[in-house]
Every structure is written in structure tokens, then in C-alpha cells.
């Protein structure tokens, strides 16, 4: 428990600190560069993301799950990652003119060819991160990530001030990737000690191939909105959607990553102890909801004053999208934790099946909502997220006692606290806006103060065991913990 708590602490430091820095820098860059620059990079996001998935090919998850891993397994994954990374870069290099023609944006040719270099650079760090995760050494990862993010953020801001425009975002991505590879090898040096092993590859890819297919489907559909908006509308519309999407996805994904990176290797080690495994999983599910649900609800309520104060009036059309997407991503950690259970159980085939089912549903949503505009497309995402919960939890229940009803019973008290505190805050916000002041800074301050106070009070009263668990993790207090 002590090692897991320490790992959780360092994982949280890395994710929260790096994401906080990236968020602040992104907001500054948004003011300096405007929606169009973010839209151009957003148009390329799907191609870079798909290439990254191919480069990993599910081997990282396979290495972490495999309890009898050998040096040949790491070396094999390392060589494979680099080869695929180079291959993907060459494809994108020669495909760049076609992508620019598709979007009718000539400047995308050079942007893609330079930005795609991050794929090759990142391929040198995949095995390094896997080894550190297996060892639950999140401290080294935290130091490397923080330094690379700080320096690359400085590069981006400097380039933006010199009027490099969209190239400031490219400079940030490249410098961050390069620095991360260098620093990981400084803090935890590693080089392959054997050659490529066909047997190792067959085992690793046998497990990872289904995750690769599932990840490809997931990645395409995560970025398909930018593709459709970029083709049907404009770079500015892509920028508005991309900003709203990033602002809503970042807190949900950050907290989920913190939890998953620690629980996946930990739960892989206790997968044969059924009672301990399922109790720990349920506790993880509740802790994720405890933190992420109010965060996303608060962001949804505060979307308009937040955008107005932080980004300025030119970004205000993104506020409505942010309100909807924040609610859509509220369940993101619950989805991820349910799917994590299938990976730990070795059921990558079911994982793939689920992705196909859910993405078929998204396709239907897109067909219905595209003619209605970007707002309708976001509402479709919200509806899909709640349907996906029932699909994921149904299949999780087939391989554990964590049935849909059991998950709902565990999550409903937290949901109730979020809804009640959110409604009270919104009523106060509306009353002040109607009778006293229309200043968005005042509205934002009210939301950021009132909702957390109400929510924490309700949580302490309704789910006290989770409240104590959070105190234990943050302050290392000796409290009596229950799985509830």
C-alpha cells in the first residue's frame, strides 16, 4: 500500500503539474495566436495520433501486464517502435500534399512534415516509460516531464512573441518530445542489450494487436470531429472546437492517467486474488468519480465566464461547446477504469469488440448531427458518453462482480452531491448576474468558491470513507479506510 501511495503521489505530481503548465501556456498562446492557428494543428491531430498508436502497437500494455518479461522483450519492443515510427513518418511526409489539398490549406504541407518528426522522437521513449511504469518509478518520469514541459513552453511563448504564428505550437511539440527522450535517459539510462526476438514479438504483439486495433478505432473517432469540422466548416471553427475539446478533456484525462498508470501494474499483480482485486477496483472507481465529477460539472457551469476572462471575447463561441463537452467527458475515467479491467484480465478481444460497438454508435450520432452543426455534434458526444457507460459496465460485469447496478449504487451518492452543489451554484450565479453585476470575473470567482465548498461539505457527510481516503493520500494521515 505504501509503494502504491507513493507511486500515486508522483504520478499525480507529474500529470497535474505538467498539465497545469501546459494549460496555462495554451491559454496564453490562444490569446496570442487566435483560433485559426489551433485549427490548423487540430486538422493534423488525427494523423499524428494514429501514427503514435501504430508506433506503440499495444506493446507497452503487453510489457506491463507480462509478469515474466525478459530483456529480449524490451529490446524487441524498442527496435519495433523505432522502425514503425520511421515508417509512419515517411508515409506522412509524402502524404502531406494530399492532406493539404483535402483541407484546402496549402500551409499544412510543411506543418505536417515538421510536426510528424515528433513520432520518430517519441518512439525512442516508449520502452523507457514502460520500464519505469513497471518499476512504479513515477518520480523519474515526473522530473523528466516537468523539465521538458517547462522548457518547451518557454520555446513556444518566445516563438509566439516573435510572430511565428502556428509554428510556435509546432516548436513546442518538437522541443517537448526531444527533451523528454533526453531527460528520461539521463535520469534512468537504458539501452537494448539483445537483438530483435521473433518469439518475444509474437507474444507481445499477440496481446497488443487487439489493443492496437481498438486504439486505432478510438483514436480515429476521437479526432474525427476535427476532420469533419475542418472539411465542412473552417480552420476557425476547428480551432474553437479544438480549444473546447482540450479544455474539457484535459482535466478528465489527467486524473484518469494518474489513476490508470498506478492501478494497471498494481492490479496486474493481484489479478488472481479475486476479492482484493474487485474491492480495489471499486474503490478506484469511486475515488476517480469523487475528483473528476465535480471538476467537470464546475467547468461546465463556469464555461462562459471562464472563456471570457481567460481567452477573451474572440473565443466566446467556444463557451457553449465547452459546457456540453465538459459533461460528456465527466464519465471519461469511469470508461477507462472499466476498460482497464478487461486489459488486466487479458481480454483484449472483448476490449476490441467494445470499441467497434461504441464507434458504430458514434457513426450513427455523426450521421444525425453533422447537418445540424457543431453544437449538435457535441450533444451527440454527450449522449454517446452515457450510453457507453452501460455498454462498458455490462461487459465488465461478465468478468467480475462489478455489475452495472453495483457501479451505479457506488457512484450515485457522488453524482447526487455534484448535481446538488452544481444547481445551488448556478442559481446563485444567475441571481448575481441578473440583479447585481454582469462582470464575468465576478461570476467566475463565485463559481470557483461556492461549488467546492458545498460539494466538500456534502461529500464529508455522505461518503465519509472516500473523504478520509483523499485526506490519507494528500496528507498521509492515519485514517481508517473502508472500501464502501
Task: Quickly list its features.
484 residues; mainly alpha; 2 domains; 84% helix; disordered C terminus
Arithmetic mean of pLDDT:
82
What's the N-to-C terminus distance? 18 Å
Beta-sheet strand percentage? under 5%
Morphology: globular
Number of helices: 20
| Computed Rg | 22 Å
Largest beta-sheet details: none
Structural class given helices, strands, pairing? mainly alpha
Q: Low-confidence parts, pLDDT < 50 over ≥5 residues?
A: 477-484
Question: Secondary-structure element sequence?
Answer: HHHHHHHHHHHHHHHHHHHH
**Helicity, in percent?**
over 70%
Count the beta strands.
0
Number of domains: 2
GO cellular component, one term: plasma membrane
Protein name: Lipopolysaccharide biosynthesis protein
Transmembrane segments: 40-64, 76-96, 108-130, 142-160, 166-187, 281-303, 315-335, 356-373, 408-432, 444-463
Subcellular location: Cell membrane
Report on the architecture of this protein.
Helices cover 84% and strands 0% of the residues. With 484 residues, it is mainly α. The protein has 2 domains: 1-231, no CATH class; 234-476, no CATH class. Keywords: Cell membrane, Membrane, Transmembrane, Transmembrane helix. It is a multi-pass membrane protein. It is found in: Cell membrane.
Amino acid at each position: 500500500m505504501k509503494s502504491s501511495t507513493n507511486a500515486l503521489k508522483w504520478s499525480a505530481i507529474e500529470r497535474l503539474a505538467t498539465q497545469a503548465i501546459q494549460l496555462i501556456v495554451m491559454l496564453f498562446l490562444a490569446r496570442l495566436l487566435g483560433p485559426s492557428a489551433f485549427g490548423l494543428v487540430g486538422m493534423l491531430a488525427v494523423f499524428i495520433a494514429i501514427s503514435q498508436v501504430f508506433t506503440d502497437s499495444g506493446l507497452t500494455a503487453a510489457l506491463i501486464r507480462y509478469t515474466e518479461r525478459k530483456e529480449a522483450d524490451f529490446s524487441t519492443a524498442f527496435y519495433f517502435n523505432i522502425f514503425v515510427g520511421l515508417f509512419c513518418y515517411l508515409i506522412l511526409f509524402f502524404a502531406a500534399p494530399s492532406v493539404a489539398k483535402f483541407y484546402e490549406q496549402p500551409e499544412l504541407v510543411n506543418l505536417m512534415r515538421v510536426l510528424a518528426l515528433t513520432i520518430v522522437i517519441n518512439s525512442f521513449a516508449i520502452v523507457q516509460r514502460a520500464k519505469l511504469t513497471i518499476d512504479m518509478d513515477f518520480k523519474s518520469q515526473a522530473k523528466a516531464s516537468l523539465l521538458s514541459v517547462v522548457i518547451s513552453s518557454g520555446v513556444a511563448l518566445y516563438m509566439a512573441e516573435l510572430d511565428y504564428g502556428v509554428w510556435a505550437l509546432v516548436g513546442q511539440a518538437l522541443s517537448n518530445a526531444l527533451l523528454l527522450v533526453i531527460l528520461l535517459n539521463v535520469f534512468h539510462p537504458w539501452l537494448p542489450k539483445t537483438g530483435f526476438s521473433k518469439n518475444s514479438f509474437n507474444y507481445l504483439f499477440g496481446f497488443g494487436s487487439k489493443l492496437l486495433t481498438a486504439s486505432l478505432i478510438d483514436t480515429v473517432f476521437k479526432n474525427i470531429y476535427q476532420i469533419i469540422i475542418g472539411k465542412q466548416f473552417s480552420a476557425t471553427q476547428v480551432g474553437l472546437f479544438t480549444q473546447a475539446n482540450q479544455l474539457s478533456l484535459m482535466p478528465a484525462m489527467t486524473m484518469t492517467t494518474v489513476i490508470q498508470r498506478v492501478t494497471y501494474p498494481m492490479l496486474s499483480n493481484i489479478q488472481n486474488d479475486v476479492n482484493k482485486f474487485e474491492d480495489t477496483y471499486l474503490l478506484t472507481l469511486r475515488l476517480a468519480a469523487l475528483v473528476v465529477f465535480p471538476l467537470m460539472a464546475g467547468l461546465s457551469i463556469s464555461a462562459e465566464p471562464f472563456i471570457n476572462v481567460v481567452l477573451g471575447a474572440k473565443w466566446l463561441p467556444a463557451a457553449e461547446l465547452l459546457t456540453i463537452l465538459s459533461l460528456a467527458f465527466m464519465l471519461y475515467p469511469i470508461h477507462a477504469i472499466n476498460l482497464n479491467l478487461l486489459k488486466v484480465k487479458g481480454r483484449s478481444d472483448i476490449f476490441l469488440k467494445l470499441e467497434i460497438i461504441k464507434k458504430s454508435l458514434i457513426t450513427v450520432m455523426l450521421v444525425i448531427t453533422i447537418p445540424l452543426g457543431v453544437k449538435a455534434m457535441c450533444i451527440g458526444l454527450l449522449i454517446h458518453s452515457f450510453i457507453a457507460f452501460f455498454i462498458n459496465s455490462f461487459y465488465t460485469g461478465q468478468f467480475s462482480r462489478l455489475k452495472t447496478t453495483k457501479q451505479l449504487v457506488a457512484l450515485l451518492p457522488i453524482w447526487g452531491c455534484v448535481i446538488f452543489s452544481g444547481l445551488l451554484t448556478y442559481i446563485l450565479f444567475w441571481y448575481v448576474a441578473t440583479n447585481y453585476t454582469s462582470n464575468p470575473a465576478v461570476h467566475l470567482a463565485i463559481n470557483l468558491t461556492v461549488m467546492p465548498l458545498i460539494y466538500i461539505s456534502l461529500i464529508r457527510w455522505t461518503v465519509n470513507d472516500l473523504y478520509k481516503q483523499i485526506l490519507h493520500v494528500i496528507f498521509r494521515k492515519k485514517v481508517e479506510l473502508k472500501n464502501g
